[in-house]
Task: inverse folding
């Protein structure tokens, strides 16, 4: 029996998932009957597909401060784990008649959130912005309904760029 176990620690809570699979040695494995030698061919192995699915994303919040700054929170579904997600905080400045992205940063850890709570109702616990210089931004997101909200992360934006604040 083969068993895979995966653990994810997020804000003091653990999520453990396990899958188990069994296999029987012999004919079900595609081996030759009665212990005969297997025929080998010189054919190269079939190449595995190299394409990956596009990253699924969903904007979960935005804030516009006059005609100067715009902030968005975007959930990005994990390529490795379909239940996990990352969150990007993006800042846009208004130039030439359009909003242009000027900087971005990750909120929390990469793949540190769960996709379904993050993209569901009431996913935003705190999303606070202010039009001062530097502009403070505070973000807290729902981890799960039973765990509650993530710790609040604070960012500062000066001249359209995130600063270490």
Result:
């Amino acid at each position: 029996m083969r068993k895979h176990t995966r653990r994810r620690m997020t804000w003091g809570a653990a999520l453990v998932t396990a899958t188990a699979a069994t296999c029987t040695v012999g004919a079900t494995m595609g081996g030759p009957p009665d212990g005969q030698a297997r025929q080998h061919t010189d054919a190269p192995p079939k190449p595995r597909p190299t394409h990956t699915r596009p990253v699924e994303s969903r904007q979960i919040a935005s804030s516009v401060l006059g005609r100067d700054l715009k902030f968005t929170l975007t959930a990005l579904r994990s390529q490795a784990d379909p239940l996990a997600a990352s969150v990007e905080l993006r800042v846009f400045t208004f130039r030439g008649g359009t909003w242009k992205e000027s900087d971005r940063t990750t909120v929390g850890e990469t793949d540190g959130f769960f996709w379904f709570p993050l993209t569901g109702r009431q996913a935003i616990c705190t999303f606070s912005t202010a039009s001062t210089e530097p502009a403070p931004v505070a973000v807290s997101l729902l981890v799960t309904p039973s765990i509650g909200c993530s710790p609040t992360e604070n960012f500062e934006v000066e001249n359209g760029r995130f600063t270490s604040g």
Notes: The chain has one helix and twelve strands. The CA atoms of residues 43 and 49 lie 18 Å apart. The two ends are 51 Å apart (CA to CA).
